Every structure is written in structure tokens, then in C-alpha cells.
Amino acid sequence: MSTVAKPTKPVRLGFIGLSTTGWAAMALAPPLFKAPLSSEFSLVAVSTTNTDSAQATAQKYSELVSSQADGGPKVTIKPYHGSAEHIAADRGIDMLVVSVRATHHKEVALKVIEGGKDLFIEWPIGRNLAETREIYEAALKKGIKTVVGLQTRFTGYASKVKSIVDSGEIGKTIASSFIVSMGPFASYGPTTTQKYKYIFDSSNGVTLVDVIGGHLFDLLTYILGPIASLSAILENQIPLITIIDDHGKPTDEVIPFDGPHQICVSGVLVSGAVFNVHVQTGAKETDFNWVIHGEKGTLRIRDDDRTPGRFGFVDATPKVYLNGNKIEVENVDTTTTGLAWKAFADGKAGTYATLEQGLKVKEIVFAIKKSSDGGERVYL
Question: What is the per-residue pLDDT across 34-55, written as a single tens digit (0 to 9) for each?
């Protein structure tokens, strides 16, 4: 693990895409309002698509932060709306969080970078490899700090498995097999609403291999090291998607979908270990089973919870077994996003994902698509 200079405290944050509901409101922002992060970061501004939503969001979080001020002065969070250049020009902001649809990542991120602000951007960092690389190169040229929302590496099981692998307890890794089956909630069909219609346009870069594939391969390479080469098969099993209304009833609209429902990838790591990954979606039962074989021992990371309605990957809570013996996984009183924020605040580069790591993961996703399209082995 390397370190970088710790940010000046508290880091003055602005959010682009934070509303009163949604992913940012549910997962990204809440850890910032609890100790110890509440003393490390300070929310000072928000930016949304229009005046009404910006004012509503600013009011909500102004009231929240003020209520936690223990009798201190009332906090007023500034509302911005429309183009990201407005909030990016605010000299009272140190870092901006980009949590908008991937179709707008490039446009918004480049405005943030142009404004000289440090950047937190959600995965998948744009629609494709070219956009990710453009964002990375702009940030590198500007010299800003970056964080990417690849938080699975902060799960308790990931931290435990990495510590065991790094300790040499199982010896040199010789093979890894990772199988994930995801439930109907993540099925990418056969139905969807107008709100999520955009994810079925593969050019928008939010298919199963783009999103879940990215998170999984970040996890795998974070623990076992980089990939040398791979071969892949992507298969679509539901080519037509029916649009349903807000009551769940089918409409007359049917759209095509060419994204994958099955991802099969095999290859070799730079270390010489071989690996295989199989991810499927729309399964009747979820599954999470990762086996890592070393020269001295074996790790099994397995989630046997088959509760209906589970996502099957991002909500996995697997148990860890070393040579057949269950290993206790530390329970931490914060979310994976909270741990990522804390790692950034502490300057622990190498533990949280930056745009540099994000670009490497995007290159893996691109290689998977290239291999499947061309029926070839791809070298990274």
C-alpha cells in the first residue's frame, strides 16, 4: 500500500447528481454525516438537473447537517443546477462527486477536472474505454486526486481474503475459479420500465459485463494481481425486452437488447495463475462461490444464502474458509463506501480505486468484449 498526502481537513465536497432519493442519496452521501467521516468531509454544495430539484436537495441536506451541528451555526448548502461548470467553478469546493448516468460521465467529469477539483466518479466511468481514457488523461494532466466507486474491495470478506493471500499463508496462487449467479432483479430483462430503458442500449455502457463485470474484475485483480491474457464468451439469452408501466403491466413497446446475460472468461494472471469467471443473471437462485487454490492451501469464499429477491453479488455476505476451516470476518460499523471515503481521507492510495485502477479495469472489460466478438485470446 502506498500513501499520498492527506487532504486538507475537512474536505469541502460538492455532489453532482445527489437528489433527495436515488443511489447517491442511498449509498454515497450517508456515511459522510457520521463519525469519523463527519469531521473529515463537509458537504457544501449540490448540483442537479433543474432549479426545483437543486433547491429541494440543498434544503434537505442543509437541515440534516444543521441538526448534527450540536448547537453550532445553521448550515446552508448551495444549490446549483444545469451544467456542471457552475459548481465546478466554485472556489469553496475541494472535491466533486459525480453520480449521474454513465451517458453523462465524460461531459460532467471533464468540467470537474477543468475546474481543478478532486474527483470521485462512480463506475463505469463513461460509456466505453475511449471515454474512460479521456477522463483519466485529463485528470492526470491536471494533477488532481481521484476516487472511483469500485467499493466491493472494501467488503469484510475481500479484506480478509486479501490479507491471507498477501501473507503467503496459502503460498503462491495457482488457480482461481469464481462463479456468480444473480437473481431476477438484475436480469436485464425480459421486462423493464421507461426509467431503466437506457440500460438496454449497449452503447450506453451499462450492461452486465460493463457494470458487474467491472466490479468483479476489480475485486479479483485487487486481490490476485493483474491479468496477462484472457478468452471470453458473452451470450445474450433475452434479445427482446418488453416495457412495462408503473403498475407492472406490459405495454405495446418492445425494444431489442444485445447485451450479455452470460459472461464466461478464462485466462492467465501475470503471476502465472490460471483463472476462470462465470457470471450469469436472471437465475432462479443466486450463487456466489469463489475458490482460490495456492501451493500450500485453499481459500473458499461462499455465500449460501438463497433468499428470494437478493441481488447475488453486490449484497453477497459470503463466509471464508481456509483449508476447510471457517475464518472469522471482521464486522465493521460502516459501509463499503464509507471505508472508501475513509481511505481517501487517510491518504491510503492503493486501497481505494483511482482513475488509474479504473482505467485498467475498463481495459479488462474491453478485452472481454473483443475476445468474445472475435473469438480470440486477448493479451493485456
Answer: 989 999 999 999 999 899 999 9
